[in-house]
Design brief:
Blueprint lengths: L23 E6 L7 H14 L4 E6 L1 H7 L5 H17 L7 E4 L5 H12 L2 H5 L2 H9 L8 H4 L1 H10 L5 E4 L4 H18 L7 E4 L27 H8 L21 H9 L2 H12 L5 H27 L4 H27 L10
Parallel strand pairs: 1-2, 2-3, 4-5
Helix pairs in contact: 3-13, 4-8, 4-14, 8-9, 10-13, 11-13
Bound molecules: tryptophan.
Amino acid sequence: MQKGHDSTHDASGDNRPEDVPVRRIVSGIQPSGRLHLGNYMGALKNWIQLQDRFEAFFFIADWHALTTNYEDTTPIRENIREMLVDWIALGLDPEKCTVFLQSDVLEHAELNLLLSMVTPVSWLERNPSYKDQQTQITGKDLSTFGFLGYPVLMSADILLYHADHVPVGLDQLPHLELAREIARRLRHFYGPVVPEPLPLLTPTPRLLGLDGRKMSKSYKNCIYVSDSPAEVWEKVRPMVTDPARVRRSDPGTPEKCPVFNLHQSFSPPDVVHDIDKGCRTAGIGCIDCKKVLVGHIESVLAPAREKRQEISGRKGYLKNVLADGAEKAGNEARRTIRDVRQAMRLPDGNIFE
Ligand code: TRP
């Protein structure tokens, strides 16, 4: 097998086992509960496309959830289940990619520990999202070891799988840079161990919520992937459009309208074009425009609804998905751990040999 790399791949330090394909990706999401359309556009839609082009590992980062939610852990279990159902309902296919739960693969914790030994605290303290979150998330004590070490655990998630690429949004780039720095530091101390992963930047349109702010669970302005058609309509119908468009005969400005923002993500280009024109010329009213939008949102949600129904009828299915995923991911992870222990000359049950 040719051990070639993408021209963009910084392969120095890569001692990838021969049978590990070059184009491998890994990504995770914290189990925050049901997915909303912003999550779909920002991650899942992309993952679903990538699963056909890469060997992909996708996991639910439940340990990461603890870094900010360690006091009340009760929602985590339910959130894991909901997230898994949404992933599969939307089209993530466990036959095509490896879907697993982070905490099912204990090697994430072992590599996290080993990486933590070589990671200077100053690298973590200067991470912009560490500082941002400390100031933005109020009401939680984030002065913990685990929260500071968030990107080390994330680096372990990535390096365990010899990932070439990590599909993430812009906000995750500092973490990924740290993973690269850690991979280099391992190489510096112990020789080639794991490759340096590259980001695969997800084009993330800024999806607006029902109130025109960014769609976010904390703003309670979301349309959920699991909403019924009636719920979607009940949410979209009262949305405030361009405030200048008071009467049906007033022309509107689509850029000022959160309904138009959603059209841009969910409606095909010709529809977006017609809506744009119709709005500016008062050719279409807001309610009709919203009906068209809901139709296109439904073309994503309806198949997901059907799939969800199907999954719920398959007893033990989700449990099996995670069990299979943990086995596949675990095999890869154990191999990496063995290599890392060897490179670091650590005991491997064989100190007398
Ligand atoms: N930090 C990521 C987020 O909040 C989640 C995550 C954890 C992740 N481990 C990862 C993403 C490894 C990519 C690779 O979205």
